[in-house]
Design a protein that fits this description.
Glutathione S-transferase Yfyf (Class Pi), Chain A, domain 2, binds glutathione, single chain, 8 helices, mainly alpha, 2 domains, about 210 residues, Glutaredoxin
């Protein structure tokens, strides 16, 4: 299998954590030159987005949350979903929260924006982090798909906050404690290091 991935992408990073956790033989490759508009890449990923998982028979699975579920179903030996349906629902709620409420304002703040729009995006991000503070707290010891998704998102929130001169995570004790705990997992730590190194390379190139 191959994963088309970018080091800094929080969506790709979540899949790389799951790949490490499941100890899968997946080649990590960058998108082709010309990404995201390259026509050949659009044949593989109609939205032009990464990550994309390419199976050995050429079949393609896109959308990071779908890739996580696909890997879980294909390779259940090292589970990243708890056994009880309610616990599974909790995990999926956290991933939905990351995708619907945390990532969109951060994506907006990564690009150019007017002052008023910037204030609105920061407000949305702060609200979403406060909701996360209430959602977290009952996690077990075992790594889950939610941890795979949230660790890169919280890394991105820290980077976003630093750029804006705001301590977005440090003021939320449950989120901060959770971030510190999952950061100690060696599979998570390895991918967060890849994100840091990718970010450094990007900053040097601009
Ligand atoms: N919903 C997608 C989002 C993926 C995404 O937005 N990836 C970004 C990189 S972090 C991308 O490919 N952007 C290219 C573009 O916006 O054209 C997923 O979960 O996989």
């Amino acid at each position: 299998m191959q994963l088309i991935s970018l080091p800094v992408s929080p969506f790709a990073a979540r899949v790389r954590i799951a790949i490490r956790a499941k100890d899968l033989a997946v080649e990590i490759v960058p998108p082709p030159p010309g990404w995201p508009h390259d026509r050949g890449f659009r044949d593989i990923s109609p939205t032009g987005r990464v990550p994309v998982l390419i199976l050995d028979d050429g079949e393609v699975v896109g959308e990071s949350a779908v890739i996580l579920e696909f890997l879980e179903e294909m390779f259940p030996e090292r589970p990243l979903l708890p056994s009880h349906p309610l616990d599974r629902a909790r995990v999926r709620t956290l991933i939905r929260h990351a995708d619907l409420y945390l990532m969109p304002p951060m994506a907006g703040l990564a690009g150019p924006y007017e002052d008023r729009e910037g204030r609105k995006l920061v407000g949305q991000l702060v609200d979403a982090l406060e909701v996360l503070e209430g959602l977290l707290g009952d996690e077990g010891e075992d790594l889950t798909l939610a941890d795979c998704a949230l660790a890169p998102v919280l890394f991105a929130a820290e980077v976003t906050g630093r750029r804006l001169g705001l301590d977005l995570v440090g003021s939320l004790p449950t989120v901060a404690a959770y971030q510190a705990r999952i950061g100690e997992d060696e599979r998570v730590a390895a991918v967060l290091t890849e994100m840091s190194e990718g970010l450094r390379t990007l900053v040097q190139a601009t």
